[in-house]
Design a protein that fits this description.
The protein is α+β, with helices and mostly antiparallel strands and 337 residues long. It contains 15 helices and seven strands. It is globular, with a radius of gyration of 27 Å. The relative contact order is 0.13.
Length: 337
Amino acid sequence: MPLIAASLPTRRLVATLGLFIASACMPVLAETHPGQDQLVGEVAKDTGKDPQALNALLDGAKKQQGILDAISRPAEAKPWKDYRPIFLTPQRISDGIAFYREHRALLESIGKQYGVAPEYIVAIVGVETSYGRITGKYKVLDALVTLGLYYPPRATFFREQLKTLLELPENHLAGPVDTLTGSYAGAQGWGQFMPSSIRDFGVDADGDGRIDLKNSLPDIFASVANYFAKHGWQQGGMVAARAQPDGAARPVSVKDSKPQWPLEQLEAWGYAPLQALNPGEPTSLQSLDGENGKEYWFTFQNFYVITTYNRSPLYALAVHQLAQAIAEGAGVTEAMR
C-alpha cells in the first residue's frame, strides 16, 4: 500500500515539534556569574577584546566567601586608640627608616620631581604593604568578581573596578590578569592601587614600557607621588596639627576631611593650636578617641589628599605620623624635600 502524503498543516506541526525537541536537547550556556554577559559585552564594545577570551577569564574566577567576610570588618572601624598601634609600631618605624636610607636617592629624586615629601611615599608603602612584604594573597580577579557581582552594598564601585581591570592594556599590569594577587578589595602592588588608579595615575618611571607596581621601585614610588600630586598635594604644606579645645569649645561636625574654614574660625570656636600656624590656612577638624581620651586635630589640604587614597581620617593620620617618625629617624630636613 502506498504511503499517503501528509497534509501541509501536519508537516508544519511536525517541523515545529522537531525544532522544539532539537532546542530542548541543546546545552544551555548560562553565565558563570550574575551580570557576566552584560559586563563582557561592555568591555568588548569599549576595547574590541574577544568576548570568548573575556568569558574564559571570568569563568575561571571564583566567588570567595572570605573576601565578603573581610570587607565586613575593616580596620578603619576601630577607634584611633586601637587603630594607631597597628601601624605605628617600633618595627614598622625602624623598617621605614632603613627603607628610606636604602632608597634615599631615588625617593628624593622622585619626591622633588612631583613636589611630594618622600617620607610620605615611604609611609604609604609602609602602611599598605609593610614596604612591599605583604602585598596580598587574594587573586585580584576573584576579589573584584566577588565584590563587583556578589556584594550589593558596593557593587557599583567594584564592578567598575572589575571592568577597568579587564580593559587595562597588558603593559599596565605586573602580569596576566588571572595571575595577579592583591588585597581582598582587589588592590595591587606595594602601593595597593585599584585598577582605576593604575589607569589614571600609574607611571612607567623606569622607561621599560610597562607600569609594574609589584617589581619596579621607580614605578611604585613615582605612581604614589603622581597620585598625590594629581589630587592636589601642596609642596611643603601642613598635614595635621594638634588642637586644644577650651571649656566652651563649640562642637564641630565634618562630613569629610576637606578643609572648610580658615584656622582662625576654629580658634574663634574655641580650638587653640599648640604650635604657630597660619591663621588664614584652610582647615578642618578631626575628633578622635585616643588612648588618653579625646584628641583634636587641625587637618589641612595634604591630609585631605591622603584621604583620597583611603577615605578614613584614621588612615591619613597613621600615614602622617609614620612619615614624621621616618623623617626624624632618617635625618630628613625641610631643605631635602
